[in-house]
Amino acid sequence: MIDGKAVKPSSVTALFLEAGAAGVTPVENPRAIDRGSALLGVILAYPHRKLPQSVEMTWELFTDTAQKVPVSVTDPAGPVPDWATPDSPKIGWKNFLKTWTDPQVALVKIGTGRALVLPVLSIALLAFALALIIKAFRSASGRWRWAAAVGVVVVAAVTLSAFTVSVPLPGQPGQKAATDISRAILTNTATAMLETEDAAFAEALDTFVPSEEAEAVGAEMRRGLSVTLPTGAHAITDSIEEVKIEKIEPRANGIDVLVRWTANMSGGHWGHQHRRRVSYRGLLDLEETDGVWKLRGLTVLSADLKP
To answer: Among 78, 249, 60, which Cα is nearest to 172's?
Structure first.
């Protein structure tokens, strides 16, 4: 039951397992196992677009010797241990998270970082002072009054010089802007990779990948950015860190960026969480259209586990 509605799994995976020093892991050669002592692991997947408010299931597999089954329910805040028994077979979870927000892809609107800083109030006041000076020269009398007025305006212009307006200038992004753009694009790729259904994945890509490039970029994301757990499931990216630009190649309407980054990844594995830090190096083909940056091309050059 998810949010009070009965649902069916989208997939069911069964694996023979073995317990050892490395924990519970899949058996590499199932034909060689002893059926009398074999362990069977079953994964039922229930994809859901948003974090639900409640989840409930009923455990019915009890035997005379197994009347108490350990349970671990894991959410973004961490695991919660529990037990299932014949008298209390229902396992439940409720959403008590206060600060959680569902990950969403977002438009990448980041300026090039080049701007002309103008003290607009001071410029306006100085223009007014110039007009007063012209008026004073044309006046036959009372010039001292005009001079005093000009002095007041000039003092005000100097005092208000800290009030400025930045006017963005056209041009290619600098190092900082390219880093910010790359980080935002990579965060979008991580969010899109959460989608397990093709239609939802394509919808997520549509926000930051041109439609004509979506198939190629999506395929490279699946190939180069996926981290598979021993269960066969894919880990998720919790955060993108240490984005470092190695090279920027300007081109029409965009840039090609050679970049390194680190992805903090996690995933459930037979009752406990695996966490990994993966260092990536890749080439991003970035294009700006109407102030929005999009990913036209992606080539993942390397992926290495970090200690």
So the answer is: 249
- Spatial separation of the C-alpha atoms in residues 220 and 214, rounded to whole Å: 10
Give residue 220's pLDDT.
95
Give phi and psi for 36, each to the nearest 5: -70, -25
C-alpha closest to that of 188 among 202, 203, 208, 206: 208
Residue-wise pLDDT for 5-21, tens only, equals 888 888 787 878 777 76
Chain length of the chain: 307
| 302 in the same domain as 217 | yes
Quickly tell me which residue has 């090609």 as its tokens: 256
Domain span at 144: 115-168
- Three-state SS string over 77-138 comes to CEEEEEEEECCECEEEEECCCCCCCCCCCCCECCCCCCEEEECHHHHHHHHHHHHHHHHHHH
Report residues of the chain scoring pLDDT below 50.
Answer: 169
**Cβ partners under 8 Å of residue 226, min gap 6:** 193, 234
pTM above 0.85, yes or no: no
SS3 259: strand
* CA 145 vs CA 122, 137, 140, 153, 202: distances in Å: 21, 12, 12, 13, 71
Q: Residue 189 is part of a domain; what is its CATH number?
A: 3.10.450
pLDDT at 119: 64
**Would you state the structure tokens that stand for residue 108, as one six-digit string?**
């990448």
Phi, psi of 219 (to 5 degrees): -65, -40
**Single-letter code of the amino acid located at 295:** L
pLDDT, one tens digit per residue, over 71-120 is 888 887 778 888 999 999 998 889 888 887 888 899 998 876 555 555 66
pLDDT at 172: 64
Are 15 and 72 in the same domain? yes
